[in-house]
Amino acid sequence: MEFKKCVRCGCFFISKNDVCCNCETRDKLDIAKLNNILDENNTFDSIQDLSIASGVTFNNLNRFIQNNKIDGINNNSYNNLK
Ligand SMILES: [Zn+2]
């Protein structure tokens, strides 16, 4: 395993993931929130709008989408949103 820098909080950790174990929990909460919002309203014009509506930062949102963590947005619809 290699030593990595958490993309979310910047701390160093050892794991296969992009984020440390603290941020893994935060990621899961954010993803659950985003999926809930998209279940109710899937008509966001941009990632920015979704970021504002969910309170999830633009950077984190982009990361989730690129890792296919958000059910309502795949890479194709992401390209449309950009
Ligand atoms: Zn972290």
Describe the structure.
This protein has 82 residues and is mostly helical. The chain has one domain (21-81). Helices cover 54% and strands 7% of the residues. The protein has a two-stranded antiparallel sheet with strand order 1-2. The longest helix is centred in the middle third of the chain and has 20 residues, at 21-40. The chain is elongated. It starts with a strand and ends with a helix. 16% of the residues are buried. The structure holds zinc ion. Zinc ion binds at residues 6, 8-9, 11, 19-20, 22-23.
Give the names of the bound compounds.
Answer: zinc ion
Fraction in helix: 40-55%
Total beta strand runs: 2
Widest sheet: strand order? Answer: 1-2
CA distance, first residue to last residue: 34 Å
What structural class is derived from the secondary structure elements? mainly alpha
**Unreliable spans:** none
Radius of gyration: 13 Å
- How many alpha or pi helices? 4
Beta-strand share of residues: 5-15%
Query: What sort of overall outline do the alpha carbons produce when their principal axes are compared?
Result: elongated
Domain count: the total is 1
Mean pLDDT across residues = 87
Write the layout of secondary structure elements.
Layout: E1 3-5, E2 12-14, H1 21-40, H2 47-54, H3 58-66, H4 75-81
Antiparallel strand pairs: 1-2
Bound molecules: zinc ion.
